[in-house]
Amino acid sequence: MTKLTKILLTRHFPDAVIERARRDYDMTLNPDDAAWQGDALITNAEGMDGILLSSSNKFTVDVIAGLPDSVKILATFSVGYEHLDLEAARSRGILVTNTPDVLTESTADTAMMLLLNAARRVRESLEMVTTGNWVGWTPTQLLGIQPGGRRLAILGMGRIGRAVAHRARAFGMEIHYHNRSRLSPDLELGAIYHATPEDLFRHADFLSINCKMTPETTRLINSDTLDLFPENPVIVNTARGGIVDDDALIAALRSGRIAAVGLDVFEGEPKLNPGYMGLTNAFLTPHIGSATVDTRNAMGFRALDNLDAYFRGEKPGDRLV
Ligand code: 8YV
């Protein structure tokens, strides 16, 4: 890598990340931080050697086909990579990297934050206090569900799932999980393995979704699987919105089949299903799983480490393609 290497930053990443990119590269910024798609990505990539992008930019087959030959590497500022067509990149000989590890802790914090807010009815509590409708303490006001002593089912026991389990144990929860393969005892730490998602759901007083979105997990939470849960479950999603069938979940929240949800991710975000809006048992946040200064800086630095390695002629650590 030299100062002559040209990279494009598709979003306004944290200042520390931009500073480092400016120090080491001939860098082009997205002047107004618009979420470029399609032709805007192709046009702005003109003359670039590499691109630092985010999950808000969809690098579809068509976009990748239209990229100039100069582009050799796509470094995404995310652990997830559904927004990138890996096959299309492979066929054009373009390297793709992501940023695993560095957002594990903040995402697990977010899952616990959602779990507690949903279980303890914080949305209703806030509304009561801030609209002046609090009549005063009563013995049965806003009674929630206590996590301690209940079962937390974790769908996807990778790094983030295990970090959620670590936190939940401190709240006295019993950990159950499903993963494509069973973990070794030193990683399982007494968590109870279920060979199928369906069996996991039958044991889910609480569910935390921490798996990747794949064809197998798309809409895995649907009207059939929601029927499997015990009474009054709380569901938390910090993974991807498409793992949930929104219409089915909204119907179950309306009927009371599901007690509450805490959701940070949505299919089609930022345009979430309007059915969620009026539901007081839905605690909703705008994809803030990794939104801490430490984590967003670490994600940017990790993406730059990958670009640096490539342009030094080495193999980037987080190579997906
Ligand atoms: C990121 C995420 O903030 O890294 C991921 O996969 O879901 C988020 O936490 C976002 O994708 C940034 O590109």
Characterize this entry briefly.
By secondary structure, the chain is α/β, with parallel strands linked by helices. It has helices at 15-24, 38-44, 61-66, 86-91, 104-119, 122-130, 159-170, 185-188, 197-202, 223-226, 246-255, 293-311; strands at residues 6-9, 26-29, 50-53, 73-76, 95-97, 151-155, 174-178, 192-193, 206-209, 234-237, 260-263, 282-284.
Describe this structure in words.
This protein has 321 residues and is an alpha/beta fold. The protein folds into two domains: 6-102 and 293-311, 3-Layer(aba) Sandwich (Rossmann fold); 104-133 and 141-284, NAD(P)-binding Rossmann-like Domain (Rossmann fold, 3-Layer(aba) Sandwich). The protein has helices at 15-24, 38-44, 61-66, 86-91, 104-119, 122-130, 159-170, 185-188, 197-202, 223-226, 246-255, 293-311; strands at residues 6-9, 26-29, 50-53, 73-76, 95-97, 151-155, 174-178, 192-193, 206-209, 234-237, 260-263, 282-284. The radius of gyration is 21 Å and the shape is globular. The two termini are 20 Å apart. It binds 2-keto-D-gluconic acid. The site of 2-keto-D-gluconic acid (8YV) has 9 residues, from loops. 2-keto-D-gluconic acid binds next to loops.
- End-to-end Cα distance, whole Å, is 20 Å
Number of domains: 2
For the record, the CATH architecture of the largest domain stands as 3-Layer(aba) Sandwich
User: What is the CATH homologous superfamily assignment of the largest domain?
Assistant: NAD(P)-binding Rossmann-like Domain
The CATH topology of the largest domain: Rossmann fold
Helix segment tally: 12
Q: Strand sequence of the main sheet, in spatial order?
A: 8-7-6-9-10-11-12
Helix content: 25-40%
Shape: globular
How is the main sheet built?
Answer: 7 strands, parallel
Supply the helix-strand structural class: alpha/beta
Average pLDDT across residues? 97
Assigned CATH class of the largest domain: Alpha Beta
- What is the number of strand segments? 12
The ligands found in this model are: 2-keto-D-gluconic acid
Content of β-strand: 5-15%
Estimated radius of gyration = 21 Å
Low-confidence stretches: none
| SSE run | EHEHEHEHEHHEHEHEHEHEHEEH
